[in-house]
Amino acid sequence: MSEQQVMIMGVLNTTPDSFSDGGRFFDAESAIAQAQLMVEQGADIIDIGGESTRPGSPAVNAEDELGRVLPVIEALSGKINVPISIDTSKPIVMQRAVEAGASIINDVYALQADGALEMAGSLGVSVCLMHMQGTPRTMQENPTYENVVEDVKAFFKERITACASVGIKPEAITLDPGFGFGKNLGHNIALLKNLSEFHEFGVSILAGLSRKSMIGALLGDKSVNERMIGSVTAALVAVENGANIIRAHDVAETKDALTVWQQIKNFRE
Ligand code: 7PJ
User: Fold this and answer.
1) Which of 13, 19, 87, 228 gets mutated to test ligand 1 (max ligand atoms within 8 A of its CB)?
2) Which of 212, 222, 227, 265 is catalytic?
3) Which residues of 207-232 are buried (b: 16+ CB within 10 A; e: fewer)?
4) Which run of H or of E encompasses 248?
5) 247 given a catalytic annotation
């Protein structure tokens, strides 16, 4: 069996209200420094977002979102030697971000916004399609599934077909079950424990668990800045269950964990 490749996607929020880093990276200069640090620490992708999707957060208009992300992408493009992904659901932001140097679209709405699918197809870049039930404003009120793993699978199947219709090939697709996006603790754990089931689509799988409330809940309601070790532990469970990309805020710590995991796996006695 071929070795499981695991990459780290380092999170760079440029939103003033991002739940996990409280807007610390809002100005372009510190965003750039943080991105460079994450690359030194072992990030394989830098994910740049300008629209907060934390539960209850309001929508951001395209102009504000562009004002946050474009200066950072422009400054980083060519300066870091890893791909930049743009965390957005708006076609215009996708377009401008790719023109500025992004090569991956990471969309928590899985290209369902008006014109997003067509835009992603015409830009010819890779896409990460995340599952979400509802919208960030209300998604955590009462998430309900028949069978969360099967329901997410059906959604992925439909989105892969939609991608094919605009020329996005499976090689360019990553799937993400969207931990915490319209899911209660039981839903999140069911998805994590059954992550390997999503390999039936033959595309890579991303897990974003970093600092999320499910980690806080499992630790007896620890606050966001006390969730690092719990997040790294959950990331390891995800890779053990087949994840290929880990989306993380704490890149250095996640990298150490993955390095130890990989070396133990490869060790020949
Ligand atoms: C995710 C994301 C995630 C993907 C956010 C946060 C909230 N994109 N964007 N997967 N989460 N693909 O950083 O926790 O889980 S924003």
Assistant:
1) 87
2) 212
3) bbbbbbbbbbebeeebebeebbebbb
4) strand 245-248
5) yes
pTM above 0.90, yes or no: yes
Percent composition of the chain: helix, strand, coil (DSSP 3-state, to 5): 45, 15, 40
The CB density around residue 165, as the number of other CB atoms within 10 Å, is 10
Q: Determine the Cα–Cα distance for residues 13 and 50; give it in Å rounded to an integer.
A: 6
For residue 76, how many C-alpha atoms fall within 13 Å in the half-sphere facing its CB? 34
Measured from the CB, is residue 212 less than 6 Å from ligand 1? yes
214 CB under 6 A from ligand 1?
no
The widest CA-to-CA distance across the chain, in whole angstroms, is: 57
| Axis-axis angle for helices 251-266, 228-240 (nearest 10) | 40
Predicted pLDDT at 22: 55
Residue 23 has pLDDT above 70, yes or no: no
Any idea which of 18-22, 114-118, 168-172, 224-228 has the lowest mean pLDDT? 18-22
CA of 187 from ligand 1 middle (Å) equals 16
Least Cα distance to 8 among 55, 59, 45 occurs for: 45
Closest residue (by CA) to atom 3 of ligand 1? Answer: 208
Q: Is the separation of the CB atoms in 109 and 49 below 8 Å?
A: no
| pLDDT level of residue 28 (50, 70, 90 thresholds) | confident
Give the 3-state DSSP-derived string for 132-185, with helices as H, strands as E and coil as C: CCCCCCCCCCCCCCCCHHHHHHHHHHHHHHHHHHCCCCHHHEEEECCCCCCCCH
In CATH, what class is 7-265?
alpha beta
Task: Determine if ligand 1 sits within 6 Å of the CB of residue 18.
Answer: no
Q: Where are the domains of the chain?
A: 7-265
